[in-house]
Amino acid sequence: MVIDKEKLIWMYRTMVRQREFEDRVAKGFAEGNIPGFVHLSQGQEATAAGPMAVLRLDDYITSFHRGHGHLIAKGGDPKTMMAELYGKATGVMKGKGGSMHLTDPDVGDLGADGILATQVLTATGAALSAKYRKTDQVAVCFIGDGCINAGSFHEGFNIAAAWQLPLICICENNVWAETTSIYDSTHLTKLTDRAIGYGVPGVMVDGTDPMAVYEAMSAAVKRAREGKGPTFIEAKTYRWRGHFEGDSQNYRTPEEFEECKKKDPIKNFGAKLISMGLLTEAMAGQIKKEAAAEMDEAVKFAEESPFPGPEELLTDVFA
Ligand SMILES: Cc1ncc(C[n+]2csc(CCOP(=O)(O)OP(=O)(O)O)c2C)c(N)n1
Q1: Is the pLDDT assigned to residue 27 strictly greater than 90?
Q2: How far, in Å, is the centroid of ligand 1 from the Cα of 147?
């Protein structure tokens, strides 16, 4: 598949921006400036950048606890995202949601949720809405491999298939669901076999290669926009950091970790673009410099922003 040069560079830049953002979140958390839990996505950048290069701004996504990269790629503002993580009033959710609940409907992100697989239900609802309103929008739910045995996954995906809704499920299979290997929680070796049970296409891709993810996503989005129903994409990837910041990671071996780090999506994609004559070392350096400056600015904005006042305690609260 031929992908426009602009899109390829956009994916590369987006992945670098995601990495720079996450590296700063790790630092901010270690310094005690970010409250609660954070789950970082270094190593998984391609599973967000590839699909988002296919989507339009008015398409929907839902995300989960490891979702910073999804929102950055969908067009979220790193400043208000970082402020949200810091719990500040200038955050994209006024500092009330934090890392696990990043939501920005202005760019089509209907929300992240820390409760596994509920993302499938929200996206199924959005897909139903698009079909009902006769738009050609699609809804994409990002999930981890730890979601595929949860009831919400089956309920959402089943109805999306039954009603042929424009839903695309991207399962970021990074092997580990917290401390549990996917090979201990299912007998399947290909998660795409799950799709067979719903009568929908299941496509497995190298989730560290944004071009492969882009290609699978292009076919899925075309199907969905044409009213041909859902697709399940298994993107094989790996997370570099612990399940959460502070995780001892004693469930995986250093050898496994080192092996997977060889599949650095940014390094490998950068090398590929250079070999294709679309990127130079100097351009890559400039992209990194710009992303670093953007994310430093986001941290500064978060640090200098005020916390919400006590008068905010009962606003945006529903009963
Ligand atoms: C319904 C539900 N059950 C259990 C949990 C606890 N929990 C939080 S994250 C997690 C593992 C998630 O793994 P995965 O879906 O593979 O995503 P990853 O963290 O690897 O990106 C678990 C079991 C939860 N949040 N929600």
Answers
A1: yes
A2: 7
